Amino acid sequence: EIVTIIGQTPLSSAEVCGLVVSDCSGPYDPTKFWKVTLPNTPKPPVTPPKPPKPGAPVSRVLFLSDVHVDLLYKPGANAYCGEYLCCRANSPAGSPKPAGKWGDYRYCDTPLWTMENLLQHLAEKQSEFDYAIWTGDIPPHNIWNQSRADQLNALNIVSDMILKYLNIPIYPSLGNHESAPVNSFPPPFITGKDSISWLYDALAETWTHWTPVSTKRNIEKGAFYSVLVRPGLRLISINTNYCYNLNWWLLLNTTDPAGQLQWLTQQLQQAEDKGEKVHIIGHIPPGIDCLSAWSWNYYRIIDRYESTVAAQFFGHTHRDHFELFYDMKNRTRPTNIAYIGPSVTTYKYMNPGYRVYEIDGNYPESSMQLVNQQTYIMNLTEANLTDKPTWKLEYDTKEAYNMSSMTPADWDKFVQRLEKDTELFKTFYR
User: Fold this and answer.
1) Where are the alpha helices (DSSP H) in 176-215?
2) pLDDT class for 90, splitting at 50, 70, 90?
3) Which of 286, 279, 295, 352 is nearest to 318 (CA)?
4) How confident is the model over 402-430, as pLDDT tens digits?
5) Quick one: pLDDT at residue 406?
6) Contact 169, 210 (CB under 8 A)
7) Beta strands of 315-398 (E only): which ranges?
8) In this structure, which of 25, 171, 381, 404 has its CB flanked by the most CB atoms within 10 Å?
9) Distance CA 82, CA 28 (A)
């Protein structure tokens, strides 16, 4: 694929370097390549969000990401085998500490029975959740030895297991590991044997177990969609593989792949016109892993629709952190937040985790913004020692960080506190 792409790209070597690496010699201007057209409708006056009144309804949203289920995981196998993925029957021998039953902190992914144990745990408490967000990366990390059939098999097995245990609305997005080869997501104009339709058609069939049939056309085109969760709240799932700097197909044409950001702008304008709030979900957070031109355009969109976009949710990094957005004209004024949640996989040196987001609930003047979040983990060491996996609360964000609310202004104050408070920084870093 790479040979084909490099042979056909219209970009010079310097442009390719600047686009992908971003620190090549000479200046690189992401605005040079393309710019999403924003509507002529003036940006409405910004009213800073207010925390909900005591006793206001709260919606609880389950967040799952980066499950990376390994169907060939084998307890007792080598967990440090010198390859990109270990803990498998065919892993090279040599580790004095073999893989545990429920997973391993080293170069290993999630056993199928660990995934099932998590879903059994969530099934017992699913009445607490209004809906779930599932932000992709289903297959394991054996990226050198995957076929299209392997990826579709993983998609079907994990999706069927989720359907078996969770009887709540689920809104998925696409990870970078779902394709074969990994990170390979050709835009819609690529047809024939290199087309991505083998995956998107399968996603359209699977995802419409949870999303309206009306989403099928956009999923088949580009694996993105928009749904009305309830009156006043819209959820938009974007395909961030069209920003990913390891998706080499973008070198053929970096201009708004699949027209997704222009479509996103249209969706947000329609939501603004209707008085809807919007949650955006995706796999890869905007920023360091995205092409600069894409991120710059995405920031412009968030900046324009800061009063409509109430929250953003991403995965991909396997870590627990956030991104804070600032006014593009006044860089000291925080405008929005992207929450990046933990992974189910332990890869690498992680406890399996999931998150629950508490959202300002369903009532006429709801801000639909995040009001709190709780992160849950399974202590893998304990699970392997006792053979009794337990999923428990790791921390409550407002309690752990002593935050009165979770508006962009509050997160900006938190960042300032991190700069001065060493103990708080250590708590956050852990």
Assistant:
1) 197-207
2) confident
3) 352
4) 999 999 999 999 999 999 999 999 999 87
5) 94
6) yes
7) 321-326, 334-340, 353-360, 370-378, 391-396
8) 171
9) 37
The tens digit of pLDDT for each residue in 161-218 reads 999 999 999 999 999 999 999 999 999 999 999 999 999 999 999 999 999 999 999 9
Residues with Cβ within 8 Å of residue 115, at least 6 apart in sequence: 67, 69, 158, 161, 344
Q: How many helices (H) and strands (E) does the chain have?
A: 12, 14
111 is written with which tokens? 């056993």
- Does the domain at 33-73+109-429 match CATH 3.60.15.30? Answer given as no
Answer yes or no: are the C-beta atoms of 343 and 318 closer than 8 Å: yes
Q: Which residues pair with 396 in a beta bridge?
A: 374
- pLDDT, tens digit, for every residue of 118-165? 999 999 999 999 999 999 999 999 999 999 999 999 999 999 999 999
Helices within 166-196 (DSSP H only): none
Q: How many C-beta atoms lie closer than 10 Å to residue 55's C-beta?
A: 6
**DSSP strand pairing (170-172 vs 225-230):** unpaired
